[in-house]
Amino acid sequence: MDVQADQAAGAAQAQAITGSSSWRFAPLGVLIIIVLILPWLASPLWIRIATEVLMWAGLAQSWNIIGGYTGYLSFGHGAFFGLGAYVTGIAMVHLKLPFGLGLVFSGILASLLGAIIGYPTLRLRGAYFAIATWAFGEMMRQIATILDVTGGAFGMQLPAFLNLPFFYYVMLGVTALTYLTTHFLLERARFGYKLLAIRENEEAAEMIGVDTVTIKMQAFALSAFFPGVLGGIYAYWVTYIHPDSVLKADVTDFMVVMAFLGGIGSLWGPFFGAVVVQLVQRILWLVWGEGTFYLVIIGAAICAVVLFIPNGLVGLMEARFFSPREGLSRLKKKIKW
Amino acid sequence: MMLQSEDLIKSFGGVTAINHLSLTVEKGSVFGIIGPNGSGKTTFFNLVTGVYPVDSGRVIFNGKNITGLRPHHIAELGIGRTFQIPAPFTKMTVLENVMVSAFIRTSSLREARTMAREILERVRLEDKANQEVANVTLEDRKRLELARALGTQPSLLLLDEVMAGLTPAEVKASIELIRSLRTQELTIIVVEHIMDVILSLCDRIAVLDYGQKIAEDVPDKIINNPDVIKAYLGERYSARH
Q1: Within its chain, how far is the Cα of A160 from the centroid?
Q2: How far apart are CA A29 and CA A175, in angstroms?
Q3: pLDDT averaged over 10-residue windows placed end to end, chain B, 241 residues
Q4: Can you point out the beta strands (E) in chain A?
């Protein structure tokens, strides 16, 4: 009885939502306008926080390309961010090149390094791939620490450019590009189908004509490109980088955590993951001052996600808002009080 | 002549899985391969499709030497293959599974979708098109396995025990289905344990034992061949009868 009533209510709700399809995009439109004019609305602190959120949204999505869509859990992705930061830094400080050109180099070199690292490591699967990429990340940190051109352990000072809206918009542009690329290349194209096939069953994918070696390398290079560019922007934004800031394992960890929290293998998952993690972190910091307590909350949230909503926040939202009937029954099955 | 293997040898450690195997499959025919467990049937498929490198010998497909090519390349040349244990892309829909194989011939999403739908109709899976594979039955998974192989538009189809685990009624339906696939443009090689299936489908049958071909003939003669009976039923049984 109870279930039937629920189902009827769910169906009615579903109809109400799909019935007014044009209104479904209204909140999205409002959101886009707010995002575009944010620097006029917010205080410098909140522009900073928003810039940070955007950066992490882009980073988490980049990780999602190889980790979520292709099923290869990279634990060295922070290295591409760090590489990008240093390349832009070196380009601007030592080669006196403009910022934009630095970003181009950052993206290309990160991508190239991704392909080079991917060639041997993408033959490994599961934990072995994770360990190999993690070792690569550590290697990059050591290299940055011993080289002269990177300033070694002392780091590197970039020319200061104090213009928050500028960095906000650059970050917004690159992150938007990350999401557009994911949408058009992974969600709406042959390339994306091939990646999913590799994730689901690599041997079978190869057997029906997917050149798995090449496709995996392309995916890895693509997922390294955006962190490279974002790292370059970050370096110019914060003006001072050193191995323990841009090449710390934390950078990778957060990409992974955000993608998982939001829902891996989905377009909007990493975005929501990044927003939630960054906001929780910043709000706790504003309320209680600098601390690491947010890690406890994030940790608990990850446990909850893995246990109850393996498809992440996005999975939960899709289930609840777009197919309430299915979502409710799935939730009831999951949560047996 | 569609497929020819010349003196193929493949061993794993001390075990010779395929031992000097030479087979010739005519274009447009249905060719059966039978043999006891471990006689090298699936290994033969793995050699033809490039999953394993051969130790020696050659595989000629359509007049072209395909020995040593990677599996995706061989699929592109026109060999489709099903897995003994279905290996579907579980988190994708039935239609999307077949679309991935159709992408070998087109890069357009719409074309791939149309091609995949046609194939699902051929194997009678069209009403399951939008279901996630995680939710379909074993019979449907076996059909999907077939649909995915057909999706690459092969001229040679290798079927590896597509009927194992099915009920007699399902087997009957599958035989009809495979018979309907057969055309002058599609040569089929069937590996199967169920004798009825092999006998009713094939033009010629090869019998493998310990990686060697011990007989090759038309179905009627194969079932009366003393070597075949010995391999299948044992030395003592054949001595008594």
Answers
A1: 27
A2: 18
A3: 94 92 94 90 95 96 95 96 92 96 95 96 94 92 94 96 87 90 91 85 93 92 86 67 58
A4: 156-157, 240-241
Query: Measured between alpha carbons, how far is residue B225 from residues A22, A266, B29, B231 in Å?
Result: 72, 58, 22, 10
Cβ contact, residue pair A209, B81, below 8 Å:
no
Is this complex's ipTM strictly greater than 0.95? no
Cβ partners under 8 Å of residue A200, min gap 6: A71, B88, B89, B90, B91, B92
Confidence of residue A25 (pLDDT cuts 50, 70, 90): confident
CA atoms within 13 A on the CB side of B50: 25
A169 vs A80: CA distance, rounded Å: 22
Instruction: Quickly list DSSP for A30-87.
Output: HHHHHHHHHHHHS-HHHHHHHHHHHHHHHHHHHHHIIIIIS----S-THHHHHHHHHH
Backbone angles phi, psi at B57, to 5 degrees: 100, 175
* Interior/surface letters A111-138, b for 16+ CB within 10 angstroms, e for the rest: bebbbebbeebbeeeeeebbebbbebbe
Interface test with A, best of B76, B90, B94, B103 (most A CBs within 10 A): B103
Which domains does chain A show, CATH number per domain?
Answer: 42-334 (1.10.3470)
- Please list every residue in chain B whose beta carbon sits closer than 8 Å to the beta carbon of residue A193: 96, 99-100, 103, 112
Q: Any idea where the domains of chain B sit in the sequence?
A: 1-78+155-241, 85-153
Q: What is the amino acid identity at position B48?
A: V
Is B101:A209 a contact under the CB 8 Å cutoff? yes
Measure B138 CA to nearest chain A CA, in Å: 17
Residue B149: closest CA among chain A residues belongs to which residue?
A208
Closest-CA residue of A relative to B85 is: A204
How far apart are the C-alpha atoms of A136 and A180, rounded to whole Å?
Answer: 28
Q: Fill in the DSSP letter of residue A142.
A: H
**What does residue A263 show for φ and ψ, rounded to 5 degrees?**
125, 110
Q: Which of A245, A196, A195 is nearest to A221 (CA)?
A: A195
Q: Considering the domain delimited by B1-78+155-241, tell me its CATH architecture.
A: 3-Layer(aba) Sandwich (3.40)
Given a contact cutoff of 8 angstroms between Cβ atoms, the answer to whether A59 and A203 are in contact is no
Compute how many other C-beta atoms are within 10 angstroms of the C-beta atom of residue A268.
Answer: 19
Alpha-carbon distance values, A224 to A116, A178, A200, A203 (Å): 11, 11, 22, 25
Q: With bands split at pLDDT 50, 70 and 90, how would you rate the model's confidence at A3? A: very low
B48: chain A residues, CB-CB within 8 Å: none
- Distance (Å, whole) CA B96 – CA B98: 5
Q: How many other CB atoms sit within 10 Å of the CB of residue A33?
A: 10
d(CA B89, CA A204): 8
Closest CA to B142 of B189, B175, B101: B175
Contacts of B89 in chain A (CB under 8 A): 196-197, 200-201, 204-205
Question: Which residues in B lie closer than 8 A to residue A209 (C-beta atoms)?
Answer: 72, 75-76, 101, 103-104, 152
Helix, strand and coil content of chain A, in percent to the nearest 5, comes to 80, 0, 20
